[in-house]
Fold this protein.
Amino acid sequence: MTPEERKDLTRRTVHAVIDEGDFDACAGMYSSHCTFHYPNFPFEGIEGYKQFMSELRQANPDVHCDIHDILVDGDLLAARWTMGGTARHEFRGIPGTGKTWVMSGMQLTKWENDRVVEEWGSFDLFGQLRQLGVIPDMAEQRR
């Protein structure tokens, strides 16, 4: 698979899974033995990833993700993105406040042939929690 094909598959899969809720699209990009590293919300394997995304979409029905940049170097692909939505229901301990949020993040995926075998995610959870009112704004605390 060429770097451009990996970029295209990543964009299509992110759109299908996050924006549209088509969790079957995972099979076209992720290996069945894929390992995920999300430090704030651990889960295991492709089924855990699908469950995680299902819960995210249930809690934030209007969730969407925009990929801004994708870089490929050998068997690694890095993507910078912005995700947003409205917290309508509880998500893994985060209350549904009814407020909207936007956060930035990055993913790094390791590929073997035409499938992702390992993925690392990093995103601004602290900023999201501040927007939702779960963590007070530091400026408000100093008053």
